[in-house]
């Protein structure tokens, strides 16, 4: 596989061990001069969405990209789609033929199982975000146990037989991210939304979106211009900003 090279304008820090690459990104953010990837060979206290823990068996991938977007939080948060697409790009290049898809808001699935998760964290004062940390975890070697009712975790090794080293994925992901970010900067969310929808899992099918306040069941119609999940329910169309999505069939 050809080395994609490291993208211009992005720095990289490689750590042997860290609690969480996201936590490290938030600690370092103020001191970083520009976009920086923080990669760890071993992450011992990984964080998942909604306060869950993320476990990283040896050989899995853990890295975070620290950005200073100086944008309103809603615009900055669309980078979860930029990152998910970039990860899909990188994995498709490394493992051609792998059955990859994207699950709203930002999981990457392999043959319907959860291969990767993305966690955005940030800080800001006033109307714009000072720092955005995009944390990406990929089950390259091993799938940790999953939560009950959620999409079952899978690993790339178990699902495809492919052996991808975390450092190799970092180079491809950084390259793919830079390309998608350039499009986002120049043309906005529109083209990325189209690309995301073209790779979406369960589009047009019934899904359940669970929030702290309850659940909404409906047909997954689209993702809107703000990145919200749009469900067609019995009571009409509903746009959801944040939720956990469950599939009835197959999970
Ligand atoms: O719950 C999810 O699906 C998101 C998981 C995100 C895990 C990654 S691993 C690298 C980065 N550092 C963390 O502590 N979390 C993210």
From TrEMBL:
E.C. numbers: 6.3.4.15
Cited SUPFAM superfamilies: Class II aaRS and biotin synthetases
Reactions this protein catalyses: biotin + L-lysyl-[protein] + ATP = N(6)-biotinyl-L-lysyl-[protein] + AMP + diphosphate + H(+)
Residue stretches making up the BPL/LPL catalytic domain: 1-185
Highest taxon, organism lineage: Bacteria
CDD domains attached to this UniProt entry: BPL
Protein name, per record: biotin--[biotin carboxyl-carrier protein] ligase
């Amino acid at each position: 596989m050809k080395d994609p090279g490291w993208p211009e304008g992005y720095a990289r820090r490689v750590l042997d061990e860290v609690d969480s690459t996201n936590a490290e990104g938030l600690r370092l953010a103020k001191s970083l001069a520009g976009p920086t990837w923080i990669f760890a060979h071993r992450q011992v206290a990984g964080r998942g969405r909604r306060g869950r823990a993320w476990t990283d068996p040896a050989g899995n991938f853990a890295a975070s990209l620290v950005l200073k977007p100086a944008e309103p939080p809603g615009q900055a948060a669309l980078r979860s789609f930029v990152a998910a697409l970039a990860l899909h790009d990188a994995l498709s290049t490394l493992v051609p033929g792998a059955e990859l898809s994207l699950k709203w808001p930002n999981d990457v699935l392999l043959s319907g199982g959860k291969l990767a998760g993305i966690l955005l964290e940030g800080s800001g004062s006033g109307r714009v975000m000072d720092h955005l940390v995009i944390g990406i975890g990929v089950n390259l070697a091993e799938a940790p146990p999953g939560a009950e009712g959620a999409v079952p975790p899978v690993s790339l090794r178990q699902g495809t037989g492919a052996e991808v080293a975390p450092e190799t994925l970092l180079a491809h992901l950084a390259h793919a991210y830079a390309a998608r970010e350039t499009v986002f900067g120049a043309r906005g969310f529109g083209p990325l939304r189209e690309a995301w929808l073209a790779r979406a899992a369960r589009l047009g099918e019934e899904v359940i979106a669970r929030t702290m306040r309850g659940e909404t069941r409906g047909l997954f119609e689209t993702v809107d211009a703000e990145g919200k999940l749009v469900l067609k329910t019995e009571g009409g169309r509903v746009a959801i900003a944040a939720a956990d999505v469950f599939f009835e069939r197959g999970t």
